[in-house]
Amino acid sequence: MGRRHVFGLKELKERHLNAFELEALCDLDRRRAEDLALLCESHLGNRPKVFSHVEEMLSQVPGLEAIDVVTSPKTHHTIAKLAFEAGRDVMVEKPIALTIRAARLMVEEARIHGRILAVAENYRRDPQNRLVKAILESGVLGKPFLILQQSVGGGNQILITPWRHLKNEGGILIDMGVHYADLLRYLIGEVEEAYGFIALKEAERVRREGGIVVEKVQATAEDTALGVLRFEGGALGQWTEVHGAWGEALWQRIVYCDKGSLKAPPDRSGKPVEVRMAMESLDEDALRKLADKALDGITKELFQGYRLGYDMPFDQIDRKLIALELYDFADSIRKRRRPEVDGSEGLKDLALSYALCEAARLGRPVALREIEEGLVEAYQESINKALGL
Predict the structure, then answer these.
(1) Comparing C-alpha atoms, which of 108, 262, 105 is closest to residue 183?
(2) Do 178 and 273 sit in the same domain of this protein?
(3) Is the pTM of this model over 0.90?
(4) How far, CA to CA in Å, does 94 sit from each of 177, 217, 335?
(5) Are 61 and 79 in the same domain?
(6) Is 240 exposed, middle or buried (0-12, 13-18, 19+ CB in 10 A)?
(7) Do 112 and 281 touch, CB atoms closer than 8 A?
(8) Is 215 exposed, middle or buried (0-12, 13-18, 19+ CB in 10 A)?
(9) What is the residue range of 183's domain?
(10) Longest distance between any two alpha carbons in the chain, whole Å
(11) 15 and 302 Cβ atoms separated by less than 8 Å
(12) First and final C-alpha spacing in the chain
């Protein structure tokens, strides 16, 4: 993620939207930090100072205003606390933290020290998801009453990194689930109650190169979740997330409303949004007008020539969405305002992700308030213990 954030900064620099000057890098593996410093020198025009310890960086770079935390989730709360105590604002990659208890500590530390806490959530910034939100808010489809969020596939491959299959490191249901949780809340509103089932289907994960297994990991985090949601506004949701399925892959996000339906494209694909109505149609001109209102000036600048979709390589899409996160964070610092996804939003996303796990453990529906306030955390108990919380 650190490298991807550097390319996000490069995207802003190329557009003369300089949000930050990258002054320092910190990694326990100093060699990795030195390698990234070379990349920064090549792409950003300056070579940041390199450190192996956060405390050292904070004390030796006095002009530092903000910290961008792109470490594994289990370290987010400890690094953020050090930064807040040193008077710095913080953005952390999603999920905000590994558990609700850790997330609550971060939100409270930010409040105590009067600092900004932002969470990097890039899916909602996709122009296609902005358009979906605008269509729903316009009322042309009536009131949403059902949303289907389904993602099925994965087989037994290691998904990006081995730690995503370890419960005490941040399992795949949480690491990936917060993206979907954020979009469910962004599009439909707050969830009042959730029920779920979870399972571990593929206990051994492998990485193959040329058909040969080169790495294995024994999974301890569940890879399958089925959930039913009840939103505060009365809508219902069905959330299926399976990362251990073989054969036919499935992905869909469909919103059913009183007057029709809306089918969202896969995130970061640029494919068109599909709208179907019973009595009338929503023509392209109307969609263009909604898109024009939905996209802010920075998004329009980064996605120049946007026409209800886009066609570009994934790495370009990725860096543009990360650039939008970073720009929002910088603007929130300058104006001392809440970032779009602040600590409280990040906590709610994490709570919805854990709601399915906690409901499965208890065998009953759980209110999201119970999760957010730390009243129900049986599933997270072993993780909190491993974190020393």
Answers:
(1) 262
(2) yes
(3) yes
(4) 10, 23, 23
(5) yes
(6) middle
(7) no
(8) exposed
(9) 124-308
(10) 65
(11) yes
(12) 26
pLDDT tens digits for range 162-209? 999 999 998 999 999 999 999 999 999 999 999 999 999 999 999 999
Residues counted in the chain: 389
Do 251 and 174 fall within a single domain?
yes
- Which residue type sits at 43? H
Q: Which residues are CB-contacts of 46 (< 8 A; sequence separation ≥ 6)? A: 21, 22, 40
Q: Mutual orientation of helices 2-14 and 30-44 as an angle, nearest 10°?
A: 10
| Rounded alpha-carbon distances, angstroms, from residue 215 to 150, 172, 205 | 29, 18, 8
> Quick one: 93 and 81 in the same domain?
yes
The CATH number of the domain where 77 resides is what? 3.40.50.720
Reported as a single tens digit per residue, the pLDDT across 322-338 is: 999 999 999 999 999 99
CA–CA distances in Å: residue 324 to residues 25, 137, 321, 389: 21, 22, 5, 33
Categorise residue 45: left if φ over 0, alpha if ψ from -120 to 50, beta otherwise. left
Could you tell me if residue 343 is inside a domain? no
Q: What sign results for the dihedral spanned by CA atoms 330, 334, 335, 337?
A: positive
Tokens of 338: 């809440």
Instruction: Give the integer Cα–Cα distance in Å for 87 and 49.
Output: 20
User: Quick one: how far is CA 30 from the chain centroid?
Assistant: 27
Whether residue 371 is contained in a domain is answered as: no
